[in-house]
Structure formats: structure tokens, C-alpha cells
């Protein structure tokens, strides 16, 4: 079995720590590096110190040092951090698994451009369950294309900085595509005051932030006399970490290209 040399970005973050633990536990992976931005807590310390079992890998703020032995970088940080890592990885042929959310169009275009130089899996949600839920939404949207109002409701922990979640936006895009609509035109992201009646072609979004909610997503298809709710609820971040490792395995034989979790899980078609 070939061992994957994986580095983790945002090493001290909620996902960074879970990813380090998952890499340490995987039979086919080795923690080959850990990076975080200058000034972040934990720089200069062992990346797995929080597990009580040092990995012999120091968290570096210098990418050349932190990524020296890495074939893969798993990055769940912030758009500005990911874009910096992206440029380095593209230049040095390091494959990337990107879970960061909140990119603008220019950021997404930069990821697509970097995928001409290295292989990338980019997804707002690495859990198997969420990606299967996306397929269900596609089917439901096609079957309920008239007479049902579509609303996406998401809830996350109080520390989350972007809204709506990347997953909620992706759900909206999947539904809009299935209905031949453009989310940029039909997405409604806020309602207040006298809003007028609901536009039947709109897809609405509502965001809840509180406590330690890991990640809940529900899509309502609300008709007259009935409503359908398709929900996914995460109770652990481990599912995201396992999905990210699966994405690394998928990239093993890909020199370049931009992929998503549908590709990794063979859910296309
Ligand atoms: N695709 C998926 O399946 C999932 C995606 N996510 C996404 O992953 C991202 C991280 O989430 P989470 O772990 O909860 O967030 P955290 O804030 O806990 O972790 C982010 C980490 O990145 C670091 N960081 C912040 N800014 C930069 C920067 N400019 N350059 C490099 N590193 C930086 C933070 O350092 P510091 O602590 O100093 O700020 C921290 O270590 C979010 O975008 C979230 O939406 C989360 C879960 C699943
Ligand atoms: O910030 C989080 O925690 C999560 N972010 C992702 C998103 O924005 O969709 C995925 C998951 O919901 C957890």
C-alpha cells in the first residue's frame, strides 16, 4: 500500500485538529506537514500535541517549510488563506483538497485556474450523507417543479463566519440547475418588512447560528396542502475528515483537474 503524505492547513482550527487526528489514524496516510497563518496559536509546536501523542511535525507559518514533504494539502481555513496555499501548491505540484467555504467568483476562478497545474477536489461538504442528499434534492426538484415553494434552511455553530453555508448555497445551485433556473437570479437571501407575496420562481435561504450545532440543512418543498422536508444533520466533524481523506485517495492517480465530491463518490449521472 502506498502511503499518502498529507499536510494540514489551519492546523489549530476545529477542522484542522479533526483532520490531523484522522490522518494519524489512517493506515494509508502520514502526517507530512502542518501550516497555519503567522500569529495563529500553535505555530512552532507539535501539530498533534493536543492529542497527547506528538506527531513529530511542527506547525509552520512558512509554506516552504510546512509543505516540504507533502504530496497533498487538505485545507479547511478561510478563502484568503486557501488562495495563498493554492498558488504555492499549483507551483509545486501538491494536490489539494479544499473544504473552505465563502469564496467569491474570483476565488472560485482562481481554483479552476490552479487545477490546470495540479489536481484539486473542491467541495463545500465532504460528508457522504450530504452529497447523497444533494442527489435526492435534484430528483425532488424535478418532480416538484411547479406548485411547490423551495426554501433552504441551515443551522450552524456560533463561530461560523460565512452565511449562508457553502452547503446551503450548493443545495440551491443543484435545485436551480435541475429546474433550469439561475440561482444568481432566483436566490432570495433576506426578507424584512413588507416584502410582497412570494415569487414562485424564487429559492429562499434562512440562516440560524447558535451554540455548537455542527451543521444542519433542510430543504422545504412547500405546496398547498402538503410540504416535503429533506434534511441532513451532522453530529460530528469526523465525517468531513473521512470524506477529505477519501478525496486524497481519489486524487492519487490524477495529475491535474478540478473535481468535487460527486466525482469522488461516483454520484455523477
Ligand atoms: N467542506 C466541508 O466539508 C466543511 C467545510 N468547513 C469549512 O472549513 C472552514 C474552516 O472551518 P473551521 O475549522 O470550523 O474554522 P476554524 O476557524 O476553527 O479554523 C480555521 C483555521 O484556519 C486558520 N486561518 C484563519 N485565517 C487564515 C488565513 N488567512 N490563512 C491561513 N489560515 C487561516 C485559523 O486560524 P485562527 O484560529 O488563528 O483564526 C484556524 O486555524 C470554513 O470555511 C468552514 O465553512 C467546515 C467543515 C466542513
Ligand atoms: O463551518 C462549518 O462548520 C461548516 N461549513 C460547511 C459549509 O459552509 O457548508 C460545511 C458544514 O456544514 C460545516
UniProtKB/TrEMBL annotation:
One of its GO terms (biological process) is lysine biosynthetic process via diaminopimelate. Its EC number is 1.17.1.8. It catalyses: (S)-2,3,4,5-tetrahydrodipicolinate + NADP(+) + H2O = (2S,4S)-4-hydroxy-2,3,4,5-tetrahydrodipicolinate + NADPH + H(+); (S)-2,3,4,5-tetrahydrodipicolinate + NAD(+) + H2O = (2S,4S)-4-hydroxy-2,3,4,5-tetrahydrodipicolinate + NADH + H(+). (S)-2,3,4,5-tetrahydrodipicolinate binds at residues 157, 166-167. GO terms for cellular component: cytosol. One of its GO terms (molecular function) is NAD binding. NAD(+) binds at residues 10-15, 99-101, 123-126. It is an enzyme of class 1 (oxidoreductase). Residues 129-265 form the Dihydrodipicolinate reductase C-terminal domain. It comes from the Bacteria. The keyword Amino-acid biosynthesis applies. Its main location: cytoplasm. PROSITE patterns: DAPB. CDD domains: DHDPR_N (cd02274). Keywords: Amino-acid biosynthesis, Cytoplasm, Diaminopimelate biosynthesis, Lysine biosynthesis, NAD, NADP, Oxidoreductase. The active site is at residues 156, 160. InterPro entries: DapB_C (IPR022663), DapB_N (IPR000846), DapB_N_CS (IPR022664), DHDPR_bac (IPR023940), NAD(P)-bd_dom_sf (IPR036291). Coiled coil: none annotated. It is found in: Cytoplasm. Pathway: Amino-acid biosynthesis; L-lysine biosynthesis via DAP pathway; (S)-tetrahydrodipicolinate from L-aspartate: step 4/4. Homotetramer. Catalyzes the conversion of 4-hydroxy-tetrahydrodipicolinate (HTPA) to tetrahydrodipicolinate. Belongs to the DapB family. This is 4-hydroxy-tetrahydrodipicolinate reductase. It comes from Duganella phyllosphaerae.
Amino acid at each position: 500500500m502506498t502511503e499518502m503524505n498529507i499536510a494540514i492547513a489551519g492546523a489549530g482550527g476545529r477542522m484542522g485538529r479533526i483532520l490531523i487526528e484522522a490522518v494519524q489514524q489512517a493506515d494509508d496516510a502520514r502526517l507530512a506537514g502542518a501550516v497555519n497563518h503567522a500569529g495563529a496559536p500553535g505555530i512552532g509546536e507539535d501539530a498533534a500535541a493536543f492529542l497527547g501523542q506528538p506527531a513529530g511535525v511542527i506547525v509552520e507559518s512558512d509554506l516552504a517549510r510546512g509543505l516540504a514533504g507533502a504530496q497533498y494539502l487538505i485545507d479547511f481555513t478561510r478563502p484568503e488563506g486557501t488562495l495563498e496555499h493554492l498558488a504555492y501548491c499549483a507551483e509545486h505540484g501538491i494536490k489539494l483538497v479544499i473544504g473552505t467555504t465563502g469564496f467569491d467568483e474570483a476565488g472560485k476562478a482562481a481554483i479552476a485556474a490552479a487545477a490546470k497545474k495540479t489536481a484539486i477536489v473542491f467541495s463545500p461538504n465532504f460528508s457522504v450523507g450530504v452529497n447523497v442528499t444533494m442527489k435526492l434534492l435534484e430528483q425532488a426538484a424535478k418532480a416538484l417543479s411547479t406548485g411547490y415553494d423551495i426554501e433552504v434552511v441551515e443551522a450552524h455553530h456560533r463561530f461560523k463566519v460565512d452565511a449562508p453555508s457553502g452547503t446551503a448555497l450548493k443545495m440551491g445551485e443543484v435545485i436551480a440547475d435541475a429546474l433550469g433556473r439561475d440561482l444568481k437570479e432566483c436566490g432570495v437571501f433576506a426578507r424584512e418588512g413588507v416584502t410582497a407575496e412570494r415569487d414562485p420562481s424564487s429559492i429562499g435561504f434562512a440562516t440560524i447560528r447558535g451554540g455548537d450545532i455542527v451543521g444542519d440543512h433542510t430543504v422545504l418543498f412547500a405546496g398547498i396542502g402538503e410540504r416535503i422536508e429533506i434534511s441532513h444533520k451532522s453530529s460530528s466533524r469526523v465525517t468531513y475528515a473521512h470524506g477529505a481523506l477519501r478525496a486524497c485517495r481519489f486524487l492519487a492517480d490524477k495529475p491535474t483537474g478540478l473535481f468535487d465530491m460527486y466525482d469522488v463518490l461516483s454520484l455523477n449521472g
